Amino acid sequence: MALAFKKPEKTCNDRNCPFHGKLSIRGRILEGVVVSAKMDKTVIVRHDYLKYVPKFMRYERRHSRIPAHNPPCIDAKEGDYVTIAECRPISKTVSFVVVEKKEKEAQ
Asked: Model pTM?
């Protein structure tokens, strides 16, 4: 893996883990908050961003809910601020993987 993410202290035997498995990371890297962790090894991440509206020459706030694979070595819970990275499609809807859990930042 060419990207510089801190390897988690815990280990896992998940083959879809970018640190302990064979999953390679490519494409976009996003940050967001975990809003749902009810699925098995999958979390929903809310990604907030700004969209420019040319008519009013202003920005509007938007968000998207992105399903991401949650490896057992990271184990993100609801409310955690995480970094997700794009990977190959793991399932029908999941094309991102959680690569880092960050400390709570003042938002």
From this structure: 0.89
